[in-house]
Structure formats: structure tokens, C-alpha cells
Amino acid sequence: MQDSTTKQRIAVKFHDLAGLMDERMSRQWAAAEASAYGWGGVRAVSEAIGMSPHTIRKGSTELAGREANPDIPIPPRIRRPGGGRKRCTESDPELSAALELVVDPVTRGDPMSPLRWTCKSTTRLAEELTRQGHPASPSTVGRLLKAAGYSLQSNRKTKEGGGHPDRNAQFEHINAMVKAFQENGQPVISVDTKKKELVGEFKNGGREWQPSGHPQEVLVHDFMDKELGKAIPYGVYDVTGNQGWVSVGIDHDTARFAAEAIRRWWKKMGSRRYRGADRLLITADGGGSNGSRCRLWKVALQELARGLGIPLHVCHFPPGTSKWNKIEHRMFCHITQNWRGRPLVSHEVIINLIANTATDRGLTIQAELDPGSYPTGIKVTDEQLAAVNITPNAFHGEWNYSILPGKREK
Fold it and tell me: Which of 279, 303, 320, 397 could form an S-S bond across to 161 if both were Cys, CB 3.0 to 4.6 Å?
């Protein structure tokens, strides 16, 4: 008669020893316990530890063999040579090559492959391989991909577009201009428009500390709220002083909006820091509202130069190099980090988050709402452009030029 107490003791002993025994030792230990149990021992041990009766009987056979031939050494292998299930690549030598064709159909296989336009998860890859006559499980696909040097990768922003032959020369020119202005105590600013943001209870990338299980709830769909609208942050970064200004617009990102942001920076910050300044250097991207080919930008700068009473010197970065603009990695990135994971529910919240952005290297930022209207579609005539008192530089005058406050001499 089977004793439930004895079976329980067997289960406890096996649980304590299981991590120390290999397959052979486990079945031989189970066989020894079954023999010590007596009649019905194989069934009792099988029920206690969940091992197959066939496996326990195999262990009994091995123990009997060792008792009959004690001088024969224990083989080092647990299984006989060739035992166990064959790897998929052995039974299907073409599996790895088929997987290469499926996972990268553009460069190694058929560009019209069904997986060309689908998510290439291990499950989808396994399904496609099975459809082609190469049955494999998702785990097998993952193992083969790792063995072939694949890993999960996200997109990386490295391509800057077509390079201009004078790209490096323009960088050197900008650097020389910045150094010359700084050595003479003249202001140097980097300007650009930060990404437009929807105002309201919308999801904002990143995470912040919240009570566990209570994330801040936001709207499911990112449809612009007609009452709250959007925010257009235009930044002015003082390269020498490591200080920033952001005008948060609510209308459109135009050249006049950009020029107004520079004017506000000068009035609130620049004129106080550079009291004896007699010129201003502006470094900007080659496109957008402050682009080198934007006519309204030059007209707006002419108006700004007259308002400030000093010449404006402008240097544009070459095409495809906007990320080299210092405002990107010295100011905008810190603003994004400061408001990560927080819904930008109002313009006031946006301004406070920007104005409270600081770094341990001394960056400080001021921000202000610009409620002005900046209509788009304004056409600048040839006569208006000709009236701009602009002096192109000898080196790439389309990128480097000066705009003087006075009227252009005819």
C-alpha cells in the first residue's frame, strides 16, 4: 500500500537535489528511491516527482548494470553519441540561406517578397519560412538570426543629404567669424525654430516619476484643439554667454516671426549684456523661415537692423547640416529633456517649462508668449528686395552677407 507521507518525503528530497543532478543521475536516484519504496515504488516515485515510469525503469536498468559490472567506468557523456533531436540546420541545410533571403529581401533576395512591406518579427519570419517549405519555430529563427550577426536595431539619424563641395570651407568661415566677433566683444547668436507642439492633454515622449500604477492620463488621438491651438518655439541662443531666449508663437513660423524673436531677445537680454555692441552675428540654418533663399527673411532683417541701429551679419549653414547649428545641441535638446513625459496643456505651462530649463554648465533661458499674427504667403517683389541694404560676402555671398541699417545707395 502506497504511503502518502513517504511520497511527500520523496518529493521534498527531489526538489532539494534536482538542481545538482543531471539527467542520468536524476533517473538513477529515482530508481534507487523506487527500489527502497518496495512494491509499487516506480508508480509512487513517478507520481511524487513527475518523472515518467519508463525513465525510472531505465534508471533501474543502469543501476543493475553498474552492480553487475562495477569495474566499467561511468561514461562521460549523458546521452549516446548522436542522441537528441537534430538541429534544424542539419535536417534542412538550406534553412539559413532561406532566412537570409526573407529577412533582407531588398539586398539579398526578391524585392517583391511579401515580407518587404510587413513587420519582420520572428513569428512572421517563421511563418514565411514554413510557407516556403522550411518549417521553423520563432525561437529557432531568433537563434539563427543572432548566429548570423543580426540584432534588433532602431533607425539612426546619420544621413544629412547631399554634401556641398564647400561644406567644410563654410564651417571654417563660420568658425572664423564667430571667433572674430567674440574676440571683439560682439554678440553671436544661433537661431532656429524648435518643433511645433500641440497644446493640450496630448502624449509627450519620455517618462517621469509618478506613483506606481498611476500614469498621467492623456488623450488617445492627437487632433489639434481649436481653442488651445499649437505652440511654435523660436529660439535665440547666445553662443558666448550660454544664455537663451524663446519666443513661443501661436500663429505661423514666418521670417517676420523669426526677426521679432531676435528683436525681443535683444531688448530683454542682448542689449543689457552687450552694451557697447556695434554689430551682431547671426548663424542660422539654410532653410525654413530663416533660410538663405527666403526673400522675406532679408526684408525682415532689414527692418530689424533699422530698429536695432546696428549691422547684422548672417552666416548660414550649408544644406543638410542643420544639426550642426549650436542651438540644437546646446539649448533645444535640454528643453526637450526638461519637459519629457509631461503633457503641454497650455501655453503658460510651455513657457514655464522652457524658462525653468537649466544645466550644470550654466545655461539659463527666458521665454515669452508672442501672440502676434504672422500671415503666410507674403510675396516680396524685386523692388522690395532691391531696397534691402545687403552686402554679400566674397565667399558664398548667398550664405554669408551683411545687412546695414541705412538705406541702400542707388
Answer: 320
